[in-house]
Specification:
Length: 750
């Protein structure tokens, strides 16, 4: 028989071999490819600051016509900063990756260098222009975390034998090649000849009337942007509309027009306009009346700015370089009227603005309210002396509050089922909606015979939370968008699958559910059934979290695999050692790399597949370093780290300090549930590992505490409540449980 040490060594060798095989497998990508000939014509029209609320049948007839005949979407313009400036937007189009103009005020793009003027990169083309400051911008963006390669779009067109034309100053930054050059430059749309429109396969048009109106309005004495009145904004939108009409009148048939409101106009970010229209003579249209989506968002009616580059390359028949991270805008035909589509897309921005104003304060309110109520309950218990009836009422009320606190995170996602953001006072309506769903979950948790148990009400809440989140990501992640613990298109960090907060909540809910479900077979001495429950739930949870079609979460797999493996050991009474934990972490790494490898072979890989490509190119350490830096910087998120510190202090001073019964509250919960200890330890394990391997850092642990702490407190309070009524009776001697620990009586036996 093989010794334990030899078995562990063999296991390590197998895992190491598998990992090396994955890392050494050839990527199958050609080292060099000949550029395909250009097979289309694209005009990119950039209207910085344009929103769907600006588009009206009367005020902006040209934009209304584009919406009527073309495909429309809300556009996320987030680049490297909270608000995006016009030059940032144009450079992002140029690179197909988030780009910026460093150390610059949010002003209009600088005038280009024209023929006859001095240029640090050489003389401009005879009819063209050069973007000023291009070498510094190119170097700066290459050194950012995104390693943007500005000039990528122009280089791709030039490599395929085409030329580029820019209309307006900003367009030079979008269509310029690696040297910042465009072959043809015209100052305004009304100066472009018919020959010019047909000359180049790629034309970029800068329509800056709306943004220029804000520049002209200036700032107040405190340096804040002076907002335009509705009348002045409508006039600026009308001026931009006339420029768009001039461009559309000159664009020849066979051209696809892509219009983007590619920047913000102040410190507050908004969703902007995205339109696509195939202007053809024979009526054949790729982009007809309807909405748009993309593989980058997987959300109906929502696309990103980096998608604009990918879409342009696709329409030109050119291969998308790996440095361009966007996805092609895909049409979604719809029978909705133009007015209905405009209102629906405007509604997306309203929802994003509404959640942005309350998302940060949600954590403070959630943690602070619970701590205050728990503190009041603790003081009341100290003052009541031996009044058992009053103590029972206080303990029962504290339990309900704790269950409400544990239900609130899941309820925050269920709130997305209702259009709360359309209310006049959206924030109070959102709070009431979350409290309503939390109350409903708590009512279900206390509705059946399981209410007498110390752990079963918490099990109901974790089960519902895990199922809601799993079903959501398996059906399109609609509840994740514009949610208190989800993500928003304004931040643009995530559009589908599990965000870091949702992953943390789902992982902890799944682990607590698996652990507490094994309580019943363990009490009956059925260890194999308990192990089967953990394996089944663990496999399902890892699949939901890690598969690209669903959760598409890299760090989640790294955290969940070892956490569920430890849980399996603990519920079957086996020892958990640092060596075993390390092996399980390696297994998680091998699994997620395998998923990444498979995803890299797809036509439109997610960030999982792109990480595998980075591994093959030797760029993976840059990605890892960026994530690690972000994790360390998360300590500065005071709205999360302070509640986290308060929760840890609460655990120590309230849960670990002896009570008048001379046992800790946590210990009482352990004695009433044989799976309470493994449940909480594994929840802590997934929170700690998740914190270390995700760029959100302390956010992961904060969310883990937001679910596990109140449910653990509810279990402990229920244990004290049961013991209070039985403190005069002598409990029978505890018996050995199936997990090898001393098993107490269940609540139902009391």
């Amino acid at each position: 028989m093989t010794s334990r040490g030899a078995g562990i060594g063999a296991f390590l060798a197998i895992l190491g071999t598998a990992l090396m095989a994955l890392l050494l497998v050839p990527s199958g990508r050609a080292e060099a490819e000949t550029a395909a000939p250009i097979s289309g014509r694209v005009v990119i029209v950039g209207v910085p600051g344009l929103m769907w609320s600006d588009i009206d049948r009367t005020t902006t007839p040209a934009l209304w016509g584009l919406t009527k005949d073309g495909s429309a979407a809300a556009l996320s313009v987030r680049t490297t900063r909270t608000n995006t400036c016009p030059t940032d937007g144009w450079l992002t189009v140029s690179a197909g990756q988030r780009s910026r103009l460093q150390h610059a005020n949010c002003a209009l793009p600088a005038a280009p260098i024209l023929p006859g003027e001095r240029s640090p990169t050489g003389p401009p083309p005879r009819d063209g222009a050069v973007a000023p400051g291009w070498p510094a911008m190119k170097s700066d963006n290459a050194d950012t975390n995104y390693h943007a390669r500005i000039g990528l779009l122009g280089d791709a067109v030039k490599a395929a034998g085409g030329c580029t034309m820019a209309v307006g100053p900003g367009a030079v930054f979008g269509a310029g090649d690696g040297g910042g050059r465009v072959d043809r430059y015209v100052a305004a749309p009304d100066q472009v000849s018919a020959a010019d429109w047909a000359r180049c396969p790629l034309t970029a048009v800068d329509v800056d009337d709306l943004f220029r109106a804000y520049i002209d309005a200036g700032v107040d004495a405190e340096g804040d942007q002076i907002l335009l009145s509705p009348r002045k904004r409508a006039a600026a939108a009308a001026a931009a509309d006339r420029r768009v009409a001039q461009a559309m009148a000159g664009v020849p048939d066979g051209t696809t027009v892509l219009l983007a409101g590619l920047s913000d106009v102040g410190p507050d970010p908004h969703l902007r306009v995205a339109l696509a229209l195939s202007k053809t003579g024979d009526g054949a249209r790729r982009y007809g009346p309807g909405y748009m989506t993309s593989g980058a968002t997987r959300q109906d009616g929502l696309v990103t700015l980096t998608d604009l580059t990918a879409t342009t390359l696709n329409l030109l028949g050119l291969k998308q370089p790996e440095a361009a991270v966007g996805s092609v805008w895909g049409p979604q035909p719809s029978k909705a009227s133009t007015q209905e589509r405009v209102e629906a897309l405007e509604d997306e921005n309203v929802a994003a603005q509404a959640i942005r104003s309350v998302q940060t304060s949600f954590y403070w309110v959630l943690f602070a309210a619970q701590l205050v109520l728990y503190g009041i309950a603790a003081l009341a218990l100290r003052r009541l002396g031996d009044d058992r009836s009053s103590r029972a009422r206080i303990l029962g009320g504290t339990r309900v509050i704790a269950l409400l606190g544990g239900a609130a995170p899941g309820a925050s996602f269920l709130a997305g089922l209702l259009p709360w953001w359309r209310a006049g006072n959206a924030t109070p309506i959102l709070i009431c909606t979350v409290l309503g769903f939390a109350g409903l979950l708590t009512g279900v948790a206390l509705a059946g015979p399981w209410r007498r148990s110390a752990f079963a009400p918490g099990l109901v809440i974790t089960l519902v939370t895990a199922v809601v989140l799993a079903v959501d990501v398996m059906t399109g992640s609609h509840l994740q968008m514009n949610t208190l613990m989800g993500y928003t298109a304004l931040v643009a960090g995530r559009f589908y699958g599990f965000g870091n907060q949702a992953f943390s909540l789902f992982a902890v809910a799944a682990i607590l559910t698996a652990a507490w479900l094994t309580e019943y077979p363990l009490r009956a001495g059925r260890r194999r059934l308990a192990l089967g429950i953990v394996v089944a739930i663990g496999a399902f949870a890892v699949a939901v979290d890690g598969l690209p079609a669903w959760g598409s979460d890299f760090g989640g797999v790294l955290a969940m695999v070892p956490a569920f493996a430890v849980l399996a050991l603990m519920v079957t009474g086996q020892r958990v050692s640092p060596l075993r934990l390390g092996l399980f972490c390696v297994a998680g790494a091998v699994l997620v790399l395998f998923i990444s490898y498979l995803n890299s072979k797809s036509d439109n890989p997610t960030h999982l597949g792109r990480f595998w490509l980075d591994v093959m190119d030797g760029d993976a350490w840059g990605v890892i370093g960026r994530k690690f830096d972000a994790m360390l910087n998360s300590v500065g998120y005071w709205h999360l780290t302070l509640p986290l510190a308060a929760a840890i202090a609460f655990l120590f001073f309230v849960l670990a300090r002896p009570t008048r019964w001379r046992v800790s509250l946590l210990q009482r919960a352990y004695e009433h549930s044989v799976t309470m200890r493994p449940a909480l330890l594994c929840a802590l394990t997934v929170g700690v590992i998740g914190t270390l391997v995700n760029d959100s850092g302390t956010v992961i642990l904060s969310v883990s505490f937001s679910l596990a702490t109140p449910l653990m407190l509810a279990a402990g309070v229920r244990a004290l409540e049961i013991d209070l009524w039985n403190e005069d009776s002598e409990p029978p001697a505890p018996r050995e449980s199936a997990a090898g620990s001393r098993e107490p009586r269940s609540a139902e036996q009391r």
